[in-house]
Amino acid sequence: MTNAIRFHKTGGPDVLVWEEINVGKPGPGEARIRQTAVGLNFLDIYNRSGLYPVQLPSGLGSEGAGVIEELGEGVTDLKVGDRVAYGSSPLGAYSEARLIPAAQLLKLPDEIDDKTAAAMMLKGLTAQYLIRQTYRVKAGETILLHAAAGGVGLILSQWAKHLGVTVIGTVSSDDKAQLAKAHGCAHSIVYTREDFVARVSEITGGKKVPVVYDSVGKDTFLKSLDCLAPLGYAVLFGQSSGSVDPLNLGLLAQKGSLFVTRPTLFTYAAKRESLVAMANELFDVVKSGAVKIEVNQTYPLKEAARAHADLAARKTTGSTVLLV
């Protein structure tokens, strides 16, 4: 018997139900994996709530780790018994076992355990494309990162510092400010009591920053534009406070010929060779110790609803893992 968290209607955490599923055998190009750990992400809340529509009923989750139990035809670069992880799969990670396209699986190095892998794949691959591709940060630059104490934030801050970048991070509390500073932020701004636009200008001597990484959305986006130097990049990769209102593109001219982009991991990792290259770079910085992955909360998979409620209430820091 295999169980999974599913939802038959959109809504709050209470729509998540624990139910029996039939996984079946892998088809051509597929793998069946027995899951050990599943990553929790704001993306899961967007799917569950209906912000990002899905076909119902649906599974949930795009990030996890486990062991290959069976392979379908045509899979040649993996074998049964391999420890694997993934960060950009079709929905269905909240399950004891699942089928998944083998092209989305990454064989784990011995140095990285399953719980760490489940905590870092989606968030770590996101950090990779943000600072190595969307806007490739350079040593000596100063950047602004919102939600610096979140899962992506803690990884991105460490990685950017490793690359010689000064990170200004915004957070919601003094405790989170300390956490962000311990993970690479040179400056922490508690946005609940400080004007982050004024503080960024002060920290940079009025020069502002070449890029803002914003996963908060509605509450921060327009002010993020005011933090950018001319020709700067506003990189919106989430919307934890709600969707950004329609943007008058004339504002981009007025504020310094700015660029705005809304990237997703699914686009950057769409090709197998791109995904593997991104993952190898992530694995390297984790194995070297330059980026430390800290799982600050764990929940049994059956208690996914409680984990969702805590994440939405900003009670969590860093990475959260659901254990199978």
UniProtKB/TrEMBL annotation:
Domain Enoyl reductase (ER), first and last residues per copy: 11-322
Keyword line: NADP, Oxidoreductase
Gene Ontology molecular function: any one: quinone reductase (NADPH) activity
InterPro entries reported in the protein's UniProt record: ADH-like_C, ADH-like_N, ER, GroES-like_sf, NAD(P)-bd_dom_sf, QOR-like, Quin_OxRdtase/zeta-crystal_CS
GO CC terms: cytosol
SUPFAM superfamilies (alphabetical): GroES-like, NAD(P)-binding Rossmann-fold domains
Pfam families hit by this protein: ADH_N (PF08240), ADH_zinc_N (PF00107)
Protein name: Quinone oxidoreductase
Organism: Bradyrhizobium oligotrophicum S58
